[in-house]
Amino acid sequence: MVRRVLSLTSGRVAMTVLLLVALLAALGPLLAPQDPLATSDDVLAGISGGHWLGTDNLGRDELSRLLAGSRVSVLGALEVALTALVVGAVPGILSVYLGRAFEWVTLRLADTLVALPFLLFAVAVIALLGNGLTQAMLVTGVLVAPLFYRVARAATLTVARSPYVEAAVIAGAPVGWIVRRHVRSKVLPPVAVAFAQTVGTGFVIVSSLTFLGIGVQPPEPTWGGLLASDLGYLGQKPWAPVAPALLIMVTVWAGNLLADAIRDVSGEAGRALLRSRGARRRPGTTGPDPAPAPSGGVR
Amino acid sequence: MTAPSRTARPGAVPPVPAPPESLPGDRADRRPAGDAPAPPVLSLRGVRVTDRTGGRDVVHGVTFALAPGRTVGIVGESGSGKTLTCRAVLGILPEGFEVGGGTIEIEGTDIATLTPARWTALRGAVISAVFQDPASYLDPSVTVGAQIAEVVRVKLGLKRRAARRRAVELLDAVRLRDPELVGGQYPYELSGGMLQRVLIAAAIAAGPRVLIADEATTALDVTVQAEILDLLADLRERTGLALVVVSHDLAVVAQLCDEVLVMRHGEVVEQGPADAVLRDPRHEYTRLLVTEHERYGLEKVLTPEPSKETP
Amino acid sequence: MRRHTLSRVLAVAGRSVAVFVPVFVVATFVTFALRSLSGLSPARIQLGEEATPEAIARVEAQWGLDRPFLAQYWDWFTGVLHGQLGTSWTNGADISTLIGLGLGVSLSVAALALVIGVTLGFALGTLAALRRTTWVDRAVTGLVTVVSVMPAFVVGIVLVSVFAVGSGLFPSGGYVPAAQGVGPWLAHITLPALALSLDVVADVARQLRGSLVAAYRENYVTGAVVRGLSPRRIFFAHVLRNGLGPTLATLGLKFPALVGASVVTEWIFGLQGFGRFANDSAQAGDVPAVQGVLVVSVALVVSFNLIVNLVLARVTPAAQRGV
């Protein structure tokens, strides 16, 4: 699937941006030209050779703080998405197979979580349960998990109720084989779409929380924290929020773009597009899935 | 028994067929008055439909004229061009298709000259249509009574209350039991046969002179199919409605039509009075259709036996 | 026909309530469990860190915190049903009153955000759908993509810096109740509402465009054309009606995010609203206040969705029967 996503221009752009952001997270603190915590008398300076993005209200180098803060945002966004994936997708798939009671309970829980304004809850839970951004992200991950639950459940339902799976069951194919063969092709793409979207959402949430100063200790630089401190000095330096804001937006946009690209290559429209470009594909990955042959059960 | 207008050569543009009234033993004998050949309400001359993307014709010259109270049948397998021909007549060809030649006249007006506004005025009031899968041709979110009343209100200018009354009358006219109740229901609450009656009621609500029935009975089971055909025949007798009946099913065409066109791969391979074409097919393909039909014994009663002609 | 419709609407209302009652109970239970999980106590707030264990036990007994968990929950839950959210640990004030004060601010902003979001989203989505596959469509889609990746708090900061600090067209913060004049009231809530609305604009526009385009492909449009209805009538009476369903449903799903985002926007614009109250109480460790805020937010979401479901049942009855 990765190769098919990369065959689309949008997929390549999205992957490149996300890779760059990840690289920033891994190397950011090393790349920072100055100590992000070092204050100076050069307060609220404009762009100069020494400070490419100027300095903040305490004279700290903005570029260094931006680079140093990237790790928190990237890790946070990934934590949100991974938590949501595990907490949401697994029960979503199981809800189709584990009987009515499990189905009912998980459905109600998903309904409940959806009804909770998650930013409000994240703020409340984090403040009350003691901070640390990791806990915050775990909580947020649980709160956005219903998306994965629904997506995974819907995809599994269509697979489970489709004639070819029924045929495979009647033909005696082992359930494990059916799951591997069809869940991979039918459930994985929508879940991947949800994941890419949630990474984007995760960035917004991490930024929002750090903006409010929740989950991080003050001197530690974060993208949201940068925005918050810039907000107080808009009068002197109105363009200060531009860099962190752009960084957040571009990252979120890349996540959405990747989601669209995955959707395109896994949907019929995407397949037609690929075909018209003459992209090489492995046989059997496109078009309607051939009904599994009864011999499949022997394997 | 061979009509002069009958042609087995698809390519040549055939002359407009003589009114089938002249044929002995025809149903028209039972029809009172109207013996003088009425001017056709719908006439097609050498109509071609072109696929603009491929640049080729998908319908190669269809010609027929339809007088009030008469019925033309178009038979053919799917993809033979019969539905595209109907859509051309209604001015609703799918994107990428256009009328590439010939003329279509509705009540003497060449449709090529129609503005969008005049098309809107013409549809429903002069020409209308019903289709296969009637449920999908009705708005799922509006009660069927309201959808019929809407046509009456918009096309005939009736007031809300009067339109609603008229809708119930129309539902009654298409022989739905308890029209009041049915009118208040949504499409998903009705069966296929009921929906086709509703669709017919909506189609005739503004009193059109031509009704196109494109595979209108195809998905219905046999008894319901017979009832719908009966209803169409009845409407024709009572209101002088002219019908274009499109079907892949010979039985349907045999039961209703005065004239038949057999289409294959966009060509009219055979055309003539229904009796003659079905009893004495000239073209190989028509013969195939007729013999298959007999072999599988579908609705023997409906095949054009002479005994059936005089009840 | 009338009676028929009424019973249908009642059935939908009944079903919605059946779904939302468990949601409400579970949500309040989770909310209430927060205190036990947090290990926070009013004694720490009132007595400070140096308090003796006896003093702490005494204060906790005053607050009824020594009773069994389920008994506490039951008392609290019955109180909630009567609109009693308890008293604040920090100042002993009635929480219902405190939230009531902030709710006016937040609801004003949220309502205006919804109005802006729905209006703009509607216009853009309809425009794109009617001019589909033209440059207008592409331009709208591009705009919507840009708008959708702008987080509310980033937009908020930009708006403050451009329209308040930069040009001084709007006040940069604070709130004036509508009772003191509609003009000032609107001036104070316009920027925060705008910041909150962009997300709604993007979602509504995208969803509406998609469902309108899908609706135009349906056979019933052909049916209406053949019956001689005008393009305008077909759009308003049939296409829009059926395209509206998914859009309304999206709006229902969007509402919790709108309520949640108020935490951030109220902070930026210095509004003493519901979200600000939540943030302050949470930071202060005032558990009953936080519980109250959460309960009210769930109630808001649940009632909004109830209304959405009822409207949906009227607009697209067919799509609702499976719910």
Automatic annotation (TrEMBL), chain A:
Gene3D superfamilies: MetI-like. The keyword Membrane applies. It comes from the Bacteria. The keyword Transport applies. GO terms for biological process: transmembrane transport. Residues 275-299 are annotated as: Disordered. One of its GO terms (cellular component) is plasma membrane. It is found in: Cell membrane. The chain crosses the membrane at residues 74-97, 109-129, 187-214, 239-259. Belongs to the binding-protein-dependent transport system permease family. This is Peptide ABC transporter permease.
UniProtKB/TrEMBL annotation, chain B:
Residues 44-290 form the ABC transporter domain. Belongs to the ABC transporter superfamily. Its main location: membrane. Keywords: ATP-binding, Cell membrane, Membrane, Nucleotide-binding, Transport. One of its GO terms (cellular component) is plasma membrane. Residues 24-33 have a biased composition (Basic and acidic residues). Gene3D superfamilies: P-loop containing nucleotide triphosphate hydrolases. It is found in: Cell membrane. This is ABC transporter domain-containing protein. One of its GO terms (molecular function) is ATP binding. It comes from Streptomyces griseoviridis. SUPFAM superfamilies: P-loop containing nucleoside triphosphate hydrolases (SSF52540). It is a peripheral membrane protein. It holds the Pfam family ABC_tran. The lineage of its organism: Bacteria, Bacillati, Actinomycetota, Actinomycetes, Kitasatosporales. It comes from the Bacteria. Residues 12-22 have a biased composition (Pro residues). Residues 1-42 are annotated as: Disordered.
Automatic annotation (TrEMBL), chain C:
Residues 103-312 form the ABC transmembrane type-1 domain. Keywords: Cell membrane, Membrane, Transmembrane, Transmembrane helix, Transport. The chain crosses the membrane at residues 12-34, 98-130, 142-165, 185-202, 251-269, 289-312. PANTHER family: DIPEPTIDE TRANSPORT SYSTEM PERMEASE PROTEIN DPPB-RELATED (PTHR43163), PEPTIDE ABC TRANSPORTER PERMEASE PROTEIN (PTHR43163:SF3). Belongs to the binding-protein-dependent transport system permease family. This is ABC transporter permease. It is found in: Cell membrane. The lineage of its organism: Bacteria, Bacillati, Actinomycetota, Actinomycetes, Kitasatosporales. Its main location: membrane. Gene3D superfamilies: MetI-like. It is a multi-pass membrane protein. One of its GO terms (cellular component) is plasma membrane. GO terms for biological process: transmembrane transport. It comes from the Bacteria. It comes from Streptomyces griseoviridis. InterPro entries: BPD_transp_1_N (IPR045621), MetI-like (IPR000515), MetI-like_sf (IPR035906).
